[in-house]
Known about the structure:
alpha/beta, 3-stranded parallel sheet, 2 helices, 3 strands, oxidoreductase
Amino acid sequence: MEPTFQNKTVLITGGSSGIGRGAALSFAGRGANVVLASRNAAANRELMEEIKSHAGVATYVKTDVTQRR
């Protein structure tokens, strides 16, 4: 039995491709609200739409972890 993440929120950095993308889809598939944080706005919008098309919840925050504030 796979764990569920209903009513939980996960933050995925680097979610626009590779392992981050896979993690985002996996968490969303288990009921998590997914927050995508990376520099690639276009890829994250695409992933958000994919998650939402499967009744998931996702949002995107433009983030560059290499820049100090």
